[in-house]
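Course exercise 7: structure representation. Students receive a sequence record and must write out the corresponding structure in token form. The form below is the worked example handed out in class, using Fe-S protein (120 residues). Read each field label carefully; the graders check that inputs and outputs are placed in the correct fields and that the protein name is recorded exactly as given.

STUDENT ID: A-19
EXERCISE PROTEIN: Fe-S protein
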Amino acid sequence: MDALEILRQVVVLVHLSGFALLFGAWAVEVFNRRVQVTSLMSIGLSISFVAGLILAAPWGIPYELNYVKIVVKLVVLLVIGALLGVGSSRQRKGGTVPPAVFWLVGILTLLNAAIALLWR
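STUDENT ANSWER:
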């Protein structure tokens, strides 16, 4: 394994860590029966987004990147970001996060992971 492939694998680990932070923060809120958006969710989303963009760059790998899959994952990630934005905006204004928005964040986060693993 050359140095470039090791670096790419480190970026994959960072990408997965961002997902884990986003989903884990969401799961904590579910466990505590709170319907709210936290800053950890946004941080996890940001880490996942930046690392995903880095992974979408050509690394000189011997196989073709699946750009359709990358775009689908990006769209799902942007929708999650929009939902987090709506939820945090409502919270700042003293309101509550609509339960549908909260649950969609978790469902779409899990969907994004499923796309990553199952789409070949």
